[in-house]
Specification:
Structural class of chain B: mainly beta
Order of helices and strands of chain B: EEEEEEEEEEEE
Structural class of chain A: mainly beta
Strand content of chain B: over 45%
Oligomer: heterodimer
Shape of chain A: globular
Number of helices of chain B: 0
Radius of gyration of chain A: 14 Å
Helix content of chain A: under 10%
Chain lengths: 114, 113
């Protein structure tokens, strides 16, 4: 049981390049999330998927697209990277622990855009 | 809108000192409250949670009580260890047509031997 996995762990891009961040979970969770973490700002929600086949915008969706490929996988795509997208990206899935929802996080992808 | 405010860090303590990290929230309805911990180079892990007023969440010596009257969920530990050095995030979860979790900015804790 690996939990939530993310690839790659590190990536350096030039401005204008594109890339896809991959996320997978093996906990059979319906909901999955993409966050970015910037110093002093906590985690900000980019997109989320409440269930397979659905996606919704979060707080900071501009410049990103997502795909919920199946129940396990939820990818984040940067079509034309910008320096403002330099950040650490976390994927999470949500399960129910008792009567409260809990999020489980992947190890993160550290992205630098030059 | 819903929000979480927690004390700015970094907080630096000596081993065995008492820890308090303050957290207050604003929310409509009845949120669940969480503390997550992030160790260097890792993702966030759930530390403890509380689902309703006056509930106390506890784990690994850490405690927090859901105070509706003061809209607070302060994290405490009686005796910190070097291994507790990490970033701590207070968060709330609300169901507004889908569960969303809102995080505070995080508080970095350094514990010196």
């Amino acid at each position: 049981n690996a939990g939530v996995t993310q690839t790659p762990k590190f990536q350096v891009l030039k401005t204008g390049q594109s890339m896809t961040l991959q996320c997978a979970q093996d906990m059979n969770h319906n909901s999955m999330y993409w966050y970015r973490q910037d110093p002093g700002m906590g985690l900000r929600l980019i997109y989320y998927s409440a269930s397979e086949g659905t996606t919704d915008k979060g707080e900071v969706p501009n410049g990103y697209n997502v795909s919920r490929l199946n129940k396990r996988e939820f990818s984040l795509r940067l079509e034309s990277a910008a320096p403002s997208q330099t950040s650490v990206y976390f994927c999470a899935s949500r399960g129910t622990s008792g009567n409260t929802d809990t999020q489980y996080f992947g190890p993160g992808t550290r992205l630098t855009v030059l | 809108g819903d929000s979480v405010t927690q004390m700015e860090g970094p907080v630096t303590l000596s081993e065995e000192a008492f820890l308090t990290i303050n957290c207050t929230y604003t929310a409509t309805g009845y949120p669940s409250l969480f503390w997550y911990v992030q160790y260097p180079g890792e993702g966030l892990q759930l530390l403890l949670k509380a689902t309703k007023a006056d509930d106390k969440g506890s784990n690994k010596g850490f405690e927090a009580t859901y105070r509706k009257e003061t809209t607070s969920f302060h994290l405490e530990k009686g005796s910190v260890q070097v291994s507790d050095s990490a970033v701590y995030f207070c968060a709330l979860s609300v169901n507004t047509g889908g569960f969303k979790t809102i995080f505070g900015a995080g508080t970095r804790l350094f514990v010196k031997a």
